[in-house]
């Protein structure tokens, strides 16, 4: 697999125009009906699953409350493409987007272009959020983003198939492999030749880094780079983890998984053609929608551990809201961020969309738990999720992640074994780090 392409250069304003021609969607009511004193701002929203619709309804409520208008920008699902777009806009000092939805690993990369939000919410409100995520959003003593929703990888399984075939929920990746193979064969023998054992995000993008960090850490193999900045990825346990993952391809996992992101995985699993799936919490309400073929047939558990001496691990995900330095209406943008990250809005998003709140108290809320029972059962999974090495590697994180996911993808595709690819990756990261100095 080749290296990730560099982001577009900043001298490509036609590309920006084309992008907004494709992705900019203004859903505000007719401008003629708006008050002359109203202001229009824009916010970027993701569009995985029903994410865009849930974002839109929150924005519309703020519009009704304030009388101002908001344009929603639907950004690419691929986080690499979204980051490249953001970097292009911000480096050009464009005010086309006022409020950015940013990944949990981007504050250090984008901080120079974002305003300090300490005056948006008082400290008592900020203290309601998970401390680790707030700390993640502080760069050089500036709060450059406010937590909106958090994420951790979950293990989705067909509880009806486990019961049907007399198998218990696997606790290790090795048990998962054997159970997936057993049920896959039995279901195919019974007539479903499209059944697979396990699907995950295997495309060469940030989602593969997330999955592979879970594999490594579950084997006690570290997280690529440790908190002190030391490169740790080239070790025997990491090689064991990736070797096992590579063994799934064309056995319990389709070759096509090498091009899967979240929605491709969900499509296979929700259509009834996979026993196990790794995905984010957003998939839960979609699995249980009225028209879902697997409604009431799905369970959720922590991801398996890497052997008896391993541990169940989920990679920390999630998104924050930030305000551009180049916004022409920063006060209105900050007020929108305040509203969208509030406890009331986070509760609504959890109930209707399955988005994990960043506010601890909501994990004890009856309405939230009724909509998402596993929020309470898997609370420790969410609060103890392992972070990717973004803080240790700083502005070079995106390059580190790209080198990592390319090495993992090559291993999964059979282009070199895990041991060889990890040794090569270590040398590459040494060059990226300038001799270990990030």
UniProtKB/TrEMBL annotation:
SUPFAM superfamilies: Periplasmic binding protein-like II
Keywords, alphabetical: Signal, Transport
InterPro entries: Bact_solute-bd_prot1, SBP
Record keyword S-adenosyl-L-methionine present: no
Cross-referenced CDD domains: PBP2_TMBP
One GO cellular component term noted in the UniProt record for this chain: periplasmic space
A Pfam family matched in the record: SBP_bac_1
Localization per record: Periplasm
Family membership noted in the UniProt record: Belongs to the bacterial solute-binding protein 1 family.
Protein name: Sugar ABC transporter substrate-binding protein
Organism: Skermanella aerolata
